[in-house]
Amino acid sequence: MDHISPVLWQFLQKWLARFPLFPPEASKIAPQSDALYFFMVLVSLVGLTLVVLLIVSFSIFYSKARHPKAVQIEGSTLLEATWTIIPLGLFLVMFVWGALLYFRIYTPPANAMNIYVVGKQWMWKAEHPGGQHEINSLHVPTGQPVQLTIISQDVFHSFSIPAFRVKREAIPGRYTTVWFEATTPGTYHLFCTQYCGTNHSQMIGDVVVMTPDDFKKWLASSTSGDSLAQNGERLFASLSCSACHNTRPDARGPSLAGVYDSKLTLSTGQAVTADEAYLRQAILNPSQHITQGYAPIMPTYQGQVSEEGVIALVEYIKNLDSDYRVQQTLNTTEIPPESGGKAPPAGHVPAAQKGVNP
Amino acid sequence: MSAATIVSLPDQATARIPKMNFITKENGLLSWLLTSDHKRIATLYLISITFFFFIGGALAGLIRLELLTPQTSLMAADTYNKVFSMHGLIMVFFFLVPSVPATIGNFVIPMMVGAKDLALPKINLLSWYLYVLGGLMMLYTMSTGGVDTGWTFTTPLSTHYLNTNVVSAALCVFVAGFSSILTGLNFIVTIHKMRCPGMTWFRLPLFVWSMYAASILMVLGTPVLAITLTLVGLERIFHIGVFDPAFGGDPLLFQHLFWFYSHPAVYIMILPGMAVISEVVSTFSRKRVFGYTAVAFSSVAIAVFAFFVWAHHMFIMGISNYSALIFSLLTMLVAVPSAIKIFNWAFTLYKGSITFETPLLYAFGFMGLFTIGGMTGVFLGSTGTDIHLTETYFIVAHFHFVMVGGMLMAFLAGIHFWWPKWTGRMYPEKISQFAAVVTFIGFNFTFFPQFILGTLGMPRRYAAYPPEFQALNVFSTAGATILGVGYLLPILYLTWSLKYGAIAGNNPWQATGLEWQTQSPPLTENFTEIPIMDHEAYDYEWLERQQEKEVASVG
Amino acid sequence: MEEADHPHHEEHPSYQRHHFESVDQQFDATNFAMWLFLVTEVMFFGGLFASYLIMRNWYYRPFVEGSHQLSIFWGTANTAVLIVSSFTMAMAVWSAEVRRKGTLLLCLSLTLLLGFVFLGIKGIEWHEKWEKHHVPGIHQYSIAAFLDPASDPEVHKQYPDDQPLPYDLAQKTEQYFFLYFAMTGMHALHMAIGCGILIFMIVRAKAGAYTAGHVTFVENFGLYWHFVDIIWIYLFALLYLISRHG
Description:
Mean pLDDT of chain C: 91
Number of helices of chain C: 8
Structural class of chain C: mainly alpha
Shape of chain A: elongated
Order of helices and strands of chain A: HHHEEEEEEEEEEHHEEHHH
CATH class of the largest domain in chain A: Mainly Beta
Structural class of chain A: alpha+beta
Radius of gyration of chain A: 28 Å
Oligomer: heterotrimer
CATH class of chain C: Mainly Alpha
Shape of chain C: elongated
CATH superfamily of chain C: Cytochrome c oxidase, subunit III, four-helix bundle
Strand order of the largest sheet of chain A: 3-2-1-5-8
Number of strands of chain A: 12
Strand content of chain A: 15-25%
Number of strands of chain C: 0
CATH architecture of the largest domain in chain A: Sandwich
CATH superfamily of the largest domain in chain A: Cupredoxins -  blue copper proteins
């Protein structure tokens, strides 16, 4: 910006600050999104100018007063080719550029920090792995890729952060993901952009971007004590998952230690990667996600555990690298291992579990 | 505007409306309600869709009034949700879809192909009755609590989470859709089977080509909407269905089925508008449309491609990245024929002899505003930018530019263009030009700020919004007031013209096209003898020879 | 249309509408229109078939178990009924063409009768579903027969190798029945409309409307009837015969 007069630049900045034409660029992808957007604006302006110029100039030069006799022209293959190929070429450029941008936004990097978001009528709940819960707000650090794993509890919602140029639908029944890396500390809008009923316009909040140090401080001060995984562990025990998912030789279910992100073969022969979506499905629709070699006796937990509960369980399984603690709970649980089939009511905590420290 | 005009009226001192015409042929309400004359049916449609347009417009006014303030000040959030839902439903299904086809199309297509009526006149009347039935059901839906699903009936919200008149609304759209199917069916059969001798496909006016393409979409796409809404209704009644994830259904299945129709629907809405523009641009530049074949094939190309792009409404909804890629590519392809048409129309003006009567003013408005609307469609068709822009006011601005700036302007162009043929009278030129300009200005003030609002991130369907968006919203509402005036004026002066307008004669615009060879208003049977088409479309030289012959034989 | 307005009034059959130049054009146009209408019907049922395909792909076993609850006997009977009715309808068209009013009336009446038989059998099947609590959503849908096949002796005798479904899959049988009722219901609605039109046609045929050379209505209705028949054949295969292959 050195080549623009400093006075003019200040004026422009002030003007833009008061009448912004686009949101602040607060993520790494935002300038890239804006670059394509401005290219499109430019092309549109050029196209519009061209069309208007043609119409206006032809109207002037060929008005009846000036050009009383029309000349019948059938057409021109050259012109047709020109205004077919050039727009097509420009549109294809936008297609490729946009596709690259799209893939970038919807392909999270491996080192992304995962935050779960549950949308429900009419609020957003964000769940950090450390157990911090937020309603209608999202605290994130700068300089760290953040992946959001989003789901809806009821109807379609859509999680939108204009300042980051990201948006993703919250769909009931499946996870969707989007990622970003925030660059500028500040508070930005968070909107629900998919019409979801009465208070759709109230389903808004703040995305608070903090420096990594401030974020650490915030994490420490807002924790409720237990991380998501710890909550998951509690649920795992109370729902008696350990009755089948343990390392005993006669275990009815596969051990879950290290299962996250591993390759599994299902009883149908299909090969899957045990990601969050699979784990969720395995809990809620187990009969179609049985690992090969095991009987299809896992009961479904649909209706017994909310999406937040599923998230806690998924987090727990993600972090499970040994069955030690599972074995411990088995030794002290009061539920006999033979009772397979129906799960006991949710919230039931084996007596011996209550005194266990995290 | 200079005195240069193409209008050629008969001597007003001696001219009279022809005593025998389709309006005077029979009298009495029943003769209208039981008619099989396509022109009477078109008139019935014109009255009904105008009625629904103003209801939809009033709802739009309420939306803009509410959005003057950041809070929900005028009405409760629930009410606002109902208002925008019904605005959308009425405008899409009871105005835009039938607008040009059912009024101008019905009126003009038989004459353009040289036939005495459409192929299936009774089906035509049935389609009007279905429209009226759907409309009455919509009025019932509105007056008994309304519906707040949005015009898109998104599940599972519409199936399990609302207790408003969802089934009633779905039914009325179903019925209106049936009306649309029958209209399209009639047109296809007529264009295939009722062309007069000598009327080959490539001698048809481009109006017919575009209407044909739109009819194909109506016939193939609308039934899918019908079954989708039926499934929504069944799911609501039986509390289970294929769209609810809680029962193992798939909410995305609804999205696919719904948009499979609703994307072609937007081309159903715009192709008839493009049809009008071809006729208007040609007539007022006295030239054959530049690149006739290209324009004809573009219409068909749009119709074909229309069926393959529906998931561009679902880019952020969890479809696979590769699926998004394919649909984005196809969307870019479908944008090209529209661009081709705009350039062909622009070059029709080249070396023409242009006069600026009202229809051409509306056509120019169409060309500029549709270019903007169409280009912003490309913004949305590119997956990366769609992520930021979708579900915001950018979408609202985009579709209003193409539908209101495009389609509605084309509709008004067509109404003004064929008004003399329809009624035998001219509308008053000066005030109509004024109204066209007012509409154009009002439109831009209303909808251009919405592009900016969308880029800033303001979501659509919001009754309340963050205060920093207020300035642009106020601007938009101010524009809407002007736009309202622009739409009110034609009602007034067109009605006025029925009694006091100048007598038009057969061919006030000196247009080519078989309809202009008949009296104004036309006879019930259009032609006393089926014409024989012995010249190309837009043959102004043929027209000159005709006029010379007339002068020679009468004088 | 009054005679006085036709200065050049050529002789044309009384059933030729005035906007057509010839009977051929009239027949051509209306026939084309009927085929086009049937295309819209294909698109209409297409939405149902698309939903069915997806749900069956997701929940194959529940769909198989659900289909075992249907009576192959009644389904085959209905298929036979409709195929015969298509034959009688084709005979009706022929009768109209050769101007045999008696045969026409007989064929139309047989077609109507067979149509009613079809609807009657459908009624029997649906009633049975109602009794067994397999109507989705309303009337306490029961998955007992799927959790424990032995609890349903009739079906279990026919399909002794059926395994009990896990609870969550058993619940998905309700999706099968939702589609079953939606598809057969939509088909039955089309049948009922067809029967209604048949009644109208029998009355008109009695008055000689179709045996004076004007067979368009009968022909076009024949197309519609055959179409409804074909849809049923697809439904029969997709709903009843899921596991019967290979």
